[in-house]
Design a protein that fits this description.
Blueprint: E1 5-11, E2 14-21, H1 24-35, E3 42-48, E4 54-60
Antiparallel strand pairs: 1-2, 1-3, 3-4
């Protein structure tokens, strides 16, 4: 059985990591912990694998 959601983390335009699971909150926390302490244009999204729609996302921009 496949996971209900897939989380992907991007740096600029390229994907740097991904994880799948059934718990949106756990995946969101995973994304935030992966981006913690890193600088740059990090962003991520959690996609519902059945519908293909983004259900949650984040963006971390570098300081000015």
């Amino acid at each position: 059985m496949t996971a209900h959601y897939t989380a992907r983390i991007y740096f600029d335009e390229g994907e740097v990591d991904h994880e799948s699971g059934d718990d949106i909150d756990a995946l969101y926390n995973w994304m935030l912990s992966k981006a913690q302490g890193k600088f740059g244009n990090f962003n991520g999204e959690i996609v519902d694998n059945k519908t293909g729609k983004v259900v949650k996302s984040f963006r971390k921009a570098p300081p000015d």
